Amino acid sequence: MLRAKIIATGSYAPAKKLTNLDLEKMVDTSDEWITERTGIKERRIAGEKQTTSDLAYEASKIALKQSGLKAKDIDLIIVATVTGDMPMPSTACLLQNRLEAKKAAAFDINAACSGFLYGLSVAESFIKAGTHKKILLVGAETLSKFTDWKDRTTCVLFGDGAGAVILEATEGENCILSTHIHSDGSLWELLNLPGGGSKNPPTKESINKGLHFLKMKGNETFKAAVRTLESLVTDTLKANNIKPSQLSALIPHQANLRIIQATANRLGLSMDKVVVNLDRYGNTSAASIPIALDEAVRTGRIRKDDYILLEAFGGGLTWASALIKW
Ligand code: ACO
After folding, report:
1. Which of 22, 57, 95, 255 is a good FRET partner for 107, with 20 to 30 A between their CA atoms?
2. What is the pTM of this model?
3. CATH of span 177-325
4. CA of 90 relative to ligand 1 center, distance in Å
5. For 46-118, where are the E strands, in sequence order?
């Protein structure tokens, strides 16, 4: 039976750092508040002209190099993002053009912070179906461009970046064991970016009202995330007959250290098994898991035959998980 295997990873973050101390000068906040409530110390910010596809391109080049494949070998490109270069065409098509991956079909996925794991689920399905064999999956965001830098309840949280993986078909047992995707659209108002679509097309008024900035009811989202992730991670392990003690690493979406700790506690996992990098990047939405995965691979935290659990929660609401035997 065909299954999907991640054969290479890559990531990229813009050079510009914005620290909590920098934010203290911009809004009524403090390093102490941000660190205690979120775990974030600094985040990366894209240049004025730097787009989401630019970040995706840099991460993809690294993953391609590591895989030993050429762009022309890729038959599908999926980009998970809520901050694409433009509403049309897809950021995946722009990336295909930059990479000259002429054989690839390309499309975007919008599942907010769960986008990368939604993409992993879709990529896995295409590979299992046998229709596509070499897939480039990227999570890339420039949330800084959709952030209200006067709103202290959101501007301290987000950052920019991109992570990429290459998936290939395998008949071996080192592969994606399962993926799980869920949504609850009734809670869409907890987290949204209301402007720019058919509901609120761009007008002077929509801009003045700040509708083109991301909005979040942070505390309600926090509670929904903790509640949902607890059952998500235990259900994912149960579906595969794997005990928490067999896990070598948990790679969570990097939104808030307290959410991550609650999930680790539920599994009885010590924090040294949990990959955390939100102190350096903040919440990069769909990019957070592939960036953390790439860093874990490159630093040798993940080795062959390790069981790795990935999980995410975000706007939609959406939530998703994946279990991988590396
Ligand atoms: N600096 C100082 N004070 C602040 C700041 C700030 N930056 N932001 C808010 N406050 C204040 C609030 O005004 C409030 O003051 P009050 O008590 O006088 O009203 C107080 O701090 C507490 O605010 P809460 O919102 O209750 O704080 P909470 O502990 O919930 O932390 C946070 C806020 C960090 C946003 C948290 O709720 C969170 O992480 N939520 C979940 C985020 C998430 O997982 N999102 C999903 C993924 S994102 C995506 O899909 C794009």
Report:
1. 255
2. 0.97
3. 3.40.47.10
4. 32
5. 76-80, 105-109
